[in-house]
Amino acid sequence: MRRNIRFVPLAGALLLSLISAILWxxxxxxxxxxxxxFAALAAIGIHDLxxxxxxxxxxxxxxxxxxxxxxxxxxxxxxxFFESDRDEVPFSRExxxxxxxxxxxxxxxxxxGTVESVYASGFNWLTHSIMPKVIKDCDFRVxxxxxxxxxxxxxxxxxxxxxxxxxxxxNAISALNRGxxxxxxxxxxxxGGISRYHRQxxxxxxxxxxxxxxxxxxxxxSFSPEKFATQASDPQVKMIEVKLSQGAKPGxxxxxxASKISPEIAEARGIPMGQDCxxxxxxxxxxxxxxxxxxxxxxxxxxxxxxxxxxLCIGHRREFMCLVKAMVETGIAPDFIVVDGxxxxxxxxxxxxxxxxxxxxxxxxxxxxxTLRGAGLRRRIKIGAAGKIVSAYDIARAMALxxxxxxxxxxxxxxxxxxxxxxxxxxxxxxxxxxQDPRRMAALDVGxxxxxxxxxxxxxxxxxxxxxxxxxxxxxxxxLPYHFMFRSKNNEFLDGNEAFEDLPEGFLIEGADHPExxxxxxxxxxxxxxxxxxxxxPQSRFAS
Length: 544
Hints:
Elements: H1 2-5, H2 8-26, H3 32-50, H4 55-59, H5 65-73, H6 75-82, H7 93-104, E1 124-126, E2 141-144, E3 153-156, E4 158-160, H8 170-183, E5 186-188, H9 196-201, E6 204-209, H10 225-232, E7 237-243, E8 254-256, H11 263-269, E9 277-279, H12 289-302, E10 308-313, H13 317-330, E11 336-340, H14 351-356, H15 361-374, E12 382-386, H16 392-400, E13 405-408, H17 410-415, H18 438-442, H19 446-470, E14 484-487, E15 493-495, H20 496-499, H21 507-510, H22 518-526
Parallel strand pairs: 4-13, 5-6, 6-7, 7-10, 10-11, 11-12, 12-13
Antiparallel strand pairs: 1-14, 2-3, 8-9, 14-15
Helix pairs in contact: 2-3, 5-6, 7-19, 8-19, 12-13, 13-15, 16-19
């Protein structure tokens, strides 16, 4: 019943225009103005249903205009009523507005300087050159694939991060993937498997497999090498990503109730209808660091030599060092690692996990980058970064601190019309994105929104090119920590090398005499390629 309430204004306008027309013709000419008013409203509502550009208006004919009327009043109105307390804003409306402008191809410049306090703790900025360059080709790419990879992939430096079909609607997946195809960048499938809507779009795919092994699982939920090989052999699949954890809820599993599983979701995930679909918190295909790197090698072989890597939000730092130690001892290394930040993630999770579990992206990125440098593996393994990376500045800063490329979920969701209504879990997403309601998702026009996805990618990379040129560089891969400055808590500013230092190559293997590296060396010495369990520290404060 609730889903139909949104059409009541249109139905009322149609009914009242009909009644007023009858009264005008049969009773009094004074009813003509009344008829014209309701007829105009009815015409607006009908137009709202037929136009492709605004999903909100298609889902909420007539009353959806109230949102756009409020937005049109002016920034001073929005600032007073909506942004008076920044802590209550889910994500900066300035950034979301920037995405909308770039996705629509409209002017994204603004007057009167910065909207942030330059003296606030944590404020950071890019240092520019007196001799800037003009970058003409902004199609920045990075080759992903180590020495054991026979099918390397030349990826864009800005791709669509993992969002599963099921969490997102069919039309949303189609719009994202077709946009990726048009723009020449990659689309991560998320752990929900490769759906028919991923395949129809034809865009490059990063096939993500997680603890549920959706699309490559046996009936008991265990990993199926045969089914994985079939999926990975698809030419549309360019890379394979094993998800160890995600920023939204690291260390937490999930469950999709049977009532929400449609035939299309069951098809993509390879699960039966009528049963709850469980995503365990931990993988069953491996339990030790050595088994994990062997699993990586198995996936690379089964995929025919495509790039294979993993994604995680950093938790226990020693456990990540356990993985790196296994790489050193076995000689088996992934082709890439994607570092997700705890501030990232469009997926829903418990409040405690969303706010307080996992390492933020910049710190996690710097830790992974320096651990690989210390182990002598950094040149062999590419690093991707994810975690509220929306603007060109976000990309530049992440690449300066160790990333080779970046992924974004919310940026591309904004591009297809997400307004952060935060009703994803209710199945009543007003933008037709995070819903499986056929009527709501049908309001999202795939053709219009896929063009916005491609346009947002293109315009963001153009802005990145302008930043690269402003710094006097030729490619974003040339960004280094010292190109950025960070304001500290005591209101001083630090060079990027001071805030996020590049540690020496090989220092973990060779050892180091520097006192500031002793904690790194100690953690490395406690790490083991044989187990994730700590054997040199008590498991309880009461342990003997």
